[in-house]
Amino acid sequence: MCSLLWSSIVMCVTIQLLQLGIVHPSPSHIRITHLPGQPQVEFHQFSGYVNVDDRNQQALFFYFAEAEKDAASKPLVLWLNGGPGCSSLGVGAFSENGPFRPKGEGLVRNQFSWNREANMLYLETPIGVGFSYSTDTSAYEGVNDKITGKDNLVFLKNWFIKFPEYRNRSLFIVGESYAGHYVPQLAELMLQFNKKEKLFNLKGIALGNPVLEFATDFNSRAEFFWSHGLISDTTYKVFSSVCNYSRYVREYYNGAVSPVCSSVMSQVSTETSRFVDKYDVTLDVCLSSVFSQTKVLNPQQVTETIDVCVEDETVNYLNRKDVQSALHARLVGVQRWSACSNVLDYELRDLEIPTITVVGKLVQEGIPVLVYSGDQDSVIPLTGSRTLVHKLAKKLGLKTTVPYRVWFEKQQVGGWTQVYGDILSFATIRGASHEAPFSQPERSLVLFKSFLEGRPMPQEF
């Protein structure tokens, strides 16, 4: 029975027509026939825009890769990158866990793509990120978590009108970095909406190296640096006590770094060296600029420069006119597509609003949560995330159901894991960076598959 809400009537009629075979699922005008340089594949791809504010002409851009096989039986996964202000298309889809990666003039298959296990929906959010746009540029000013959450909810509601066959599908939301804010807040809004009108079949969320609680996450950096030999004993002491990292970031974004913090951070920067990548301390420098989604989480001293590769295949590929045409994308108000927005003015003080409390509410509502960490990331280290998950489990009275142990990918240790109450999980991915699916794609896929199936990480090989 259709409800009297207009959106529900449209949705219900569409589903009835779909069932009668009068309309074809997944609108053809946003179907991607072939991306330039793309290998032949059997699965369908779609991309385009969903309006989130018709009056102010605001639209969010998405890329959707259906599952490689048996798409009708696979869950729907929404992927969100962080920043705030970085692209889920360029970073998530084309550099981490999507079906293709740019190489030379074309694309190559990612054999560990997450669309092997799910229908993957990548959203460029908030407004002003990537190909997402507003014709009123004032919409880019003062954007915050509340606005982003509302727009993401409207996007999903309207996306289901375009893809009604996915309305009742099991839905998971996964994201990394500042998506530790985006994902729980969106999930909470979805549960609130469901109390009025049942629309979202939310089955779980997963958060990779996420910002969940400002002080704990950021201040874990000192111990990580020290334990990995990046700073001296003396510097560790002053970085932990005289000026910790959360204080420095707070001062930086308030526009007045104190002399003492400036001195401490200068010493930290000198010892860690700009020739070590902070997002994976085992990697050599010169990562592509598409991995700058953490620039907000890692503000630079005036004397320090970010070393990025001159050749950036993803940015070059997505700025090609033939590629934009194939994606049904357009540039509005900017000259070039960029991995992280140059026009968005985000309210960075939202960093200090803890979202671990929202995660707790989701768990209490029966939504499974996985927090996972690439264990070579010093920006949001595993120690902070593990501490927050353990404290939350204790607060909620959840008992350990899977004690802390290793998990395996093939015949190697893939990482470590612990599960509380069969609903709240923590896992590390061994050898992985802040962008775990980029640096450890096979291990990340094993973790993703276990998460979707609601199973503990593999205990044997």
Automatic annotation (TrEMBL):
Family stated for the protein in its record: Belongs to the peptidase S10 family.
Record lineage: Eukaryota, Viridiplantae, Streptophyta, Embryophyta, Tracheophyta
Chain segments annotated as transmembrane: none
Matching SUPFAM superfamilies: alpha/beta-Hydrolases
Name of the molecule in the record: Carboxypeptidase
GO molecular function terms noted in the UniProt entry: serine-type carboxypeptidase activity
One Pfam family named in its UniProt record: Peptidase_S10
The species this protein was found in: Vigna unguiculata
GO cellular component: extracellular region; vacuole
EC code: 3.4.16.-
Record bears the keyword Secreted: yes
Signal peptide residue numbers: 1-25
Biological process terms in GO annotation: proteolysis
InterPro entries in the record: AB_hydrolase_fold (IPR029058), Peptidase_S10 (IPR001563), Ser_caboxypep_his_AS (IPR033124), Ser_caboxypep_ser_AS (IPR018202)
Keyword Iron applies: no
Record's subcellular location: Secreted
Record keywords: Carboxypeptidase, Disulfide bond, Glycoprotein, Hydrolase, Protease, Secreted, Signal
Function: Probable carboxypeptidase.
Gene3D superfamilies reported for this sequence: 3.40.50.11320, 6.10.250.940, alpha/beta hydrolase
